[in-house]
TrEMBL record:
Function comment: GTPase that plays an essential role in the late steps of ribosome biogenesis.
Sequence ranges assigned to domain EngA-type G in this UniProt record: 3-163
Family: Belongs to the TRAFAC class TrmE-Era-EngA-EngB-Septin-like GTPase superfamily. EngA (Der) GTPase family.
Superkingdom in the source lineage: Bacteria
Binding residue positions for GTP 1: 9-16, 56-60, 119-122
Subunit organization: Associates with the 50S ribosomal subunit.
TM segment ranges: none
The name this protein goes by in its record: GTPase Der
Length: 163
């Protein structure tokens, strides 16, 4: 089976880190500066036996759109459009932020299958944030750590169930 996965979420939640892990190489720029990945990047991805194309996106803050943010929004919506499935990432350390709800609404409106990943869950202090993620209305949050590779089997299971 061949399919396309778009990684969506507000800046700094760990989209590029997950992209790099799935793509198996250091491609996307990971930075502490929100929204630093400005170009949409597509690469062959793999999660155990699953093979797919993975699309990294810049994400967009819900602030009044500058032209850069406008481009990032268009790029995000194009990625969702192109994808068979969306991995929606939130930051379980931070909990739900207003921008997460905005992004979740955009994803929900497309009707695309979505897997909700509660990233940065390598520490117990993230449990509350992961539970809060239920509020996004995107189904069960899957705790993962994109940086440390935790929760990848659960992520695989959720993807197969959602497709
Ligand atoms: P993006 O803006 O959504 O693409 O986020 P990035 O992938 O650039 O990551 C933003 C920041 O979060 C970087 O400092 C990453 O190192 C960090 N980060 C990403 N994944 C994890 C994780 O699983 N745990 C922790 N603690 N930090 C992470
Ligand atoms: Mg990025």
């Amino acid at each position: 089976m061949s399919f396309k996965v778009a990684i969506i979420g507000r800046p700094n939640v760990g989209k590029s880190t997950l992209f790099n892990r799935l793509a198996g190489r250091k491609l996307a720029l990971v930075d502490d500066t929100p929204g630093v990945t400005r170009d949409r990047r597509v690469h062959a991805g793999k999660l155990y036996d699953l093979r797919f194309d993975v699309i990294d996106t810049a994400g967009l803050e819900d602030a009044a759109a500058s032209s850069l943010e406008g481009r990032m929004r268009a790029q995000t919506e194009a990625a969702i459009d192109e994808a068979d499935l969306v991995i929606f990432i939130m930051d379980a350390r931070a909990g739900i932020m207003p921008d997460d709800r905005t992004f979740a609404d955009v994803v929900r409106r497309t009707g695309k299958p979505v897997v909700l990943a509660a990233n940065k869950s390598e520490s117990r202090s993230s449990e509350g944030g992961a539970i809060e993620a239920w509020e996004l209305g995107l189904g069960e949050p899957i705790p993962i750590s994109a940086e440390h590779g935790q929760g990848m089997a659960d992520l695989r299971h959720a993807i197969v169930e959602a497709l």
